[in-house]
Design a protein that fits this description.
This protein is an alpha/beta fold. It is built from eight helices and seven strands. Strands 1-7-6-2-5-3-4 form a seven-stranded mixed β-sheet. The chain is globular and about 55 Å long.
Length: 230
């Protein structure tokens, strides 16, 4: 956990004290660095994973949350005003508070910034590859509708799978992709067996996305992880 700072470790300890514990269920644990995947489920995905995962992870997070000015504007104009429909004065006050506390926590957690729709996106992949080469794992929330709490995941971003190409060129091995499923009722976090691409073709990546979408939506009847969760 060398990349975790004191602020993050303190906040995680507080969360573990005040929120219900999630029991971690896994059929196989990756010994090498891996890319863990979970759905947002609004903010619930964060509180299901970061406090309870048995391995430290470098979270992918929007770059605006690591920059005070951009963080303030995003919370004021997008999160609190457009999404929640709060009055401007209330959105402004709470955005100020959020932009004061979140960027330091973002840095302390070792978050890797994500630049969507920008030429800087390559920075995310470079930082991610460097982390993987140091033996660090990643945590990515790939669902497009991050506010959805429906039982089934609709669509996933696919770009993260291209990490495998960079990793393979550097190591000659394919990176493990590991789906996580958080059950809010049973308070369990299921770690599915690692999945690996073999060729990295577009068809194979499309198939991988569909497999991950099903795993992130919940264990199928008869699945080993589902049986353990009972």
């Amino acid at each position: 956990m060398a990349f975790y700072g004191k602020l993050f470790l303190f906040c995680r300890a507080v969360v573990r004290l005040v929120l219900p514990r999630y029991q971690v269920i896994h059929s196989e644990r990756a010994e090498e660095p891996a890319v863990y995947l979970c759905r947002h489920s609004d903010l619930q995905g964060i509180f299901m994973t970061l406090p309870w995962l048995p391995v430290p992870v470098r979270l992918w997070g929007l770059h605006v949350f690591g920059e005070p000015k951009a963080c303030y504007e995003h919370f004021r104009d997008v999160t609190f005003t457009r999404r929640y429909g709060w009055p401007r004065w209330k959105a402004t006050v709470l955005a100020k508070l959020a932009s004061w506390g979140l960027p330091p926590l973002y840095k302390s957690a070792g978050v890797i910034p994500v630049y969507r729709g920008s030429g800087q996106a390559i920075k995310t992949f470079r930082m991610s590859l460097d982390a993987l080469m140091r033996g660090e794992s990643l945590l990515i929330f790939p669902d497009k509708d991050y506010t959805s709490t429906d039982s089934e995941v609709s669509e996933l971003y696919e770009g993260f799978l291209r990490l495998d190409r960079f990793y393979y060129r550097r190591t000659g091995e394919h990176i493990p992709f590991i789906a996580l499923y958080g059950d809010r009722v049973r308070r369990t976090l299921t770690i599915h067996p690692p999945l690996r691409l073999k060729t990295g073709s577009e068809a194979e990546m499309a198939e991988m996305i569909q497999t991950l979408r099903k795993l992130l939506s919940g264990p199928a009847p008869g699945d080993l992880a589902g049986q353990l969760a009972e």
